[in-house]
Amino acid sequence: MSKKIIQQQQRLLNLIQLLLILLLLFLHLLQLQQLFQLLLLLRLLRLLLQLLLQLLLQLLLLLLLQLLLQLLLLLLLLLLLLLLLLLHYYYYYYYYYYYYYYYYYYYYY
């Protein structure tokens, strides 16, 4: 009789050990699932950072393009002003010599 009780207790202990092992396995699986979720979140974060970096680079490119266009407009304006200045001096000297020529011509002849 006592042998049967000892066997039952041994079976009960084995069952408890098995349940504990299953519980530990379940906890490890949960930890693995959390690790996989963490890896997934890290991947998502990396993709989001890449997207943000691409957007920032595009914004920087647009700003540089805008700056380049402004510089080109400024250069065009400066060239136009230079052209006006050259025309002004051209006509100024042209009329000056014209006036000098006729003045000299009428005065001395």
UniProtKB/TrEMBL annotation:
Keywords noted in UniProt: Membrane, Transmembrane, Transmembrane helix
Lineage of producing organism: Eukaryota, Metazoa, Spiralia, Lophotrochozoa, Mollusca
Protein name as catalogued: Uncharacterized protein
Species of the source: Dreissena polymorpha
Membrane-crossing residue ranges in chain numbering: 12-32, 44-65, 72-92
